[in-house]
Design a protein that fits this description.
CATH class of the largest domain: Alpha Beta
Largest sheet: 5 strands, mixed
Strand order of the largest sheet: 2-1-3-4-5
Distance between the termini: 64 Å
CATH architecture of the largest domain: 2-Layer Sandwich
Structural class: alpha+beta
Number of domains: 2
Helix content: 25-40%
CATH topology of the largest domain: 60s Ribosomal Protein L30, Chain: A
Radius of gyration: 21 Å
Length: about 200
Amino acid sequence: MHDLSSLLAATSSRHSHLCPRQVLGVRMALAGAAALDLAISRRDNSLVVIAETDGCFTDGLEVAAGVSVGRRTLRIEDYGKVAATFVDVRTGDAIRIAPRLDVRSRALEYTPWEKRHYFAQLAGYQVMPDEELLSMTPVILTPGIEEIVSRAGVRTNCVACGEEIINEREVLADGVAYCRSCLGETYYQIGVHAMPVFATIES
């Protein structure tokens, strides 16, 4: 049994305060690992978590589940939702967890002394049973976990820009490897006035 208060203290230390979304991240991590029968705070990469937003919510996930972007066990698919999918890499089993739609009003029922909604949620989310706090749905990943995780050491170069692509993230067009940016799937555009990357220092 994991000490909820210790996990909440650990995640709050990252922000110097505790917020309702951090609590949800911790509670979801505990529930997701339990549903998959996986221990949390793992040292291996058997548990992968796909979060649907970033921010303080993901801090709760990281602290409680022992996942991280650096170890490639935490991924962000930013749909702007406080939700996450927990994946057993060994079996491919996956479960998506989100707050129940009426979770804010339910939290008020657990904290009748607290009239401020923010603090009612903060306290209520810590004590509500999983079945009242969370919605848990088994899902099938598309693409599958093998494709998401990929293989270490695999690399190629984009034929258009020449930049290296790792983790099999290239896109094949007529049998030729391109990066997603060169095929138009990008989050940026080249600025009109290109800024120099390195300044030249005159001696």
